[in-house]
Amino acid sequence: MVGHLDADCFYVSAERVRHPDLVGKAVGVLGNNGACVIAKSYEMKAKGVKTGTPIWDAKVLCPDGVYVKRDFYWYEVLSRKMLDIVGSFFSPLEYYSIDEFFFRAIPINHGQTLAQAATAVRDHIRDVAGLPITIGIARTRTLAKLFSDTAKPFGAVAVTDRNHERELLARLPVTEISGIAGRRAARLAPYGIRTCLDLADADGKLVRQLLTKTGYELWLELNGRPVTPIRPARSPHKVLARGGSLMGNVDDPKLLWAWCVRHVERLIEELHYHNVRTDSLSVALAWKNGESTGGLCRLPCPSDRFDELLDAARVALRRAYLPDATATHMHVIAPELRRARGFQMSLFDPPNPKDKAVAAVKTAVNEKFGRFKIRSGTTLHLPAVYRDPANDFDICDVRGKVCF
Amino acid sequence: MISISAMYGERYASEMCTAVALSVSELPDSLIEEAGLEKRIHDRGGEKEVRFYWRASPTVLPVWWNGRLQIVRWGNRDRSERKIPATGWTWHESVKDGKWSALEAEPVVIPATYGFTDGVWYRVKQGMRGLIVLDRTEKPVVFMLCEPSTRYYRVMTRAEWMPVLVGEVI
What we know:
The structure holds two protein chains of two kinds.
Chain A: E1 2-7, H1 10-18, E2 27-30, E3 37-40, H2 42-45, H3 55-61, E4 66-69, H4 72-87, E5 93-97, E6 100-104, H5 114-129, E7 133-138, H6 141-150, E8 156-158, H7 162-171, H8 182-188, H9 196-201, H10 204-222, E9 240-250, H11 253-274, E10 276-287, E11 292-303, H12 306-320, E12 327-334, E13 337-339, H13 353-369, H14 383-387
Chain B: H1 4-8, E1 17-23, H2 29-34, E2 41-44, E3 47-53, E4 60-65, E5 68-74, E6 89-91, H3 92-96, E7 106-111, E8 114-117, E9 120-123, E10 127-134, E11 140-148, H4 151-157, E12 161-163
Parallel strand pairs in B: 5-11, 6-11
Antiparallel strand pairs in B: 1-3, 1-8, 2-3, 4-5, 7-10, 8-9, 10-11, 11-12
């Protein structure tokens, strides 16, 4: 049997752990720019505030709501604590996302049912970590996730009986399945497939025809046949990227370059952490007029060095750049990673011990005194970004998650 | 000619932090009674708090001063004091430039659980920084200390100025 643990409104719950006065209040956690609600308490949800609602709408819907700035560093601390607790009961355990885990579910005490085990672990996490969570246990991942989603908040269910399973599936619209949204549901509707049970009972060949292999695998899982195993470690990254919103509209090429350098520095941290180098570097830009552009620069040999990647980024950015346009988002991407043993060196690039030593000093200082304590002078064009310590750590910096 | 308010940095109230809320548990009952704060008690999610609005009359704020929590007049909204700026806020820069030295201003902490700017309540860890001066009857008057908003605060509240918070930056 597979267990699925999902923390209830995790970011809000994490804020309540350190600020207990927020318990019982309508609370919204705001995202990286302070513009949108990225997590809301059930009290705020009841007022009509949804994930993604802009603050200017949320304050009208919920005038007494309290808004909190996100702190992904703190959320990771609690996420790891929760992971440790669950890992002490169940193995293997998959760190699917910052607030969702999958695990092989077994009774934790002799004579205990799975439902009792789920309840015991849920209560233990609340007592030890202060976090409300919901656990669903079923025959496959898809079923476990479906049942935990419907048992929220603070639920603990184990659906081990096929009849019980069918009864629950009959109540759930097919869009409750993670991976089946509006367009896929529209493809199923003409065949009378509206509930999860309709989909489970449909012909597998038809499902494959309508929803391709991914949909067919969901169908198998709905019928109790496990497709995706529990992954205790995430598979190695094929691509690494860093980037996001430019915190407003940017039309000054100097500022665009400063952002690019910031993301190159963040990307290099990841390359070092995963012990990989990249064969090329690309820069993707999203523009205010809705257009997207990209530029790629190939490297003579795989690199993780700042000087080499900076040169490549300059070329890639120039290729992606649109004069007189306003950019809103940027990503710097290492699309072709090479593992440590497979580096093919160039005949004409001798080793550069001096640059290597400088990079090592930079890494050592930043590890000891804090991220970005030593950084490229080009990033001085972004004082607002570096003034706020909350920008030092983003959700993508939480490593080891399977989801992305 | 620059008016005294402009010199000390008056801004439209809508651009500023116009209210603070402090949990009732932080205020002694005797102080609530003495300062007549009962009417300002609000319930937020089952917990009672006292709200101090700039628009309320009398305009007051809680302040840690002389080693104890006191309820003090907030600014000079009614312009009853001629020598004190007709505002409730002042800039960090003005203080650094010594513009308050003639008034013998003292730094204080305004304890707060939540701050309120342009319709948005946000959580405050400890409180905000303020300045106290004495009026002509030797009664204290507090001003909230402000600094230019961080980008985050500006997006969140649409305000160009934010209160100087104790031990945190939003």
